[in-house]
Every structure is written in C-alpha cells, then in structure tokens.
Please model this.
Amino acid sequence: MSRATNEKTISKTLPVLLHNMSTYGFSLPKLRALNIVSLLAFVIGMLVAKPDLADIFYDHPTFLTPATWVMSLFWGLELLLLSAFVTVQYGDDLNELIGEGVGVWFVVANTLISVWIYFWVCRFCS
Model:
C-alpha cells in the first residue's frame, strides 16, 4: 500500500474512531444527565472532604504556594464555568457539540478531578 493510500485510509477512519470514543454509545439525553451528575458529584465531594483543601493548603506552605484569594478565585471561576457549561448544554444549537465534541470527556474530567482531590485530601500520595 502506498503512503498516499495509507493517509487517505487514516483520514477516513480517524474521525469515525474519535466519534465512537467520544460518545461510547450514550445518547444525547444520557450524556447531558451524566454531565449534571458528574458536576454534582464533584461539588459534593469538594464540600464533604475533610480536612478540606484549605487545611491541606495551609499545612504545606512553600514559596510557590499562591495566595489564598488566588486559589479561591481559581476554584470559584472553575465551578462557575463548569456550571455554565452544564446549564447551556441544553441549547438546541449545541447538540452536535455535546454529542460529538465533548461526549463523555466532561464526565471523565470531573471524575479524575474528584479522584485527585480525594487522594490529595486523604494523603494517600505521601
């Protein structure tokens, strides 16, 4: 097979592969529901975690540790933007973006952040 044929084959199969990976067979209503559930689990996990993130933050000060207001701004902005995404995902013009673009990756990202916070708060890494 020539290089040009290989490139054509890859260019035809890659979008199909990525589409299949992004949805994992979930329908659009299920993806939207999973997005909401994952965000709620993330927020509840942050609120329930004891000791909370600020306690651990103060236990390990370094020269690179940002100011408290910076961390509050970061987490507040992140939660605001995540909530905005979950809210606007119901727009009809976003069906393709949610179904084919974002897919389950929003759920995966929220899950990984929640797991990271859990392990960091419970100090499993040290």
Q: What stands out?
A: The chain has a mean pLDDT of 77. Residues 51 and 122 are 8 Å apart (CA to CA). The helical segments are 3-23, 28-48, 53-59, 68-88, 95-102, 105-121.
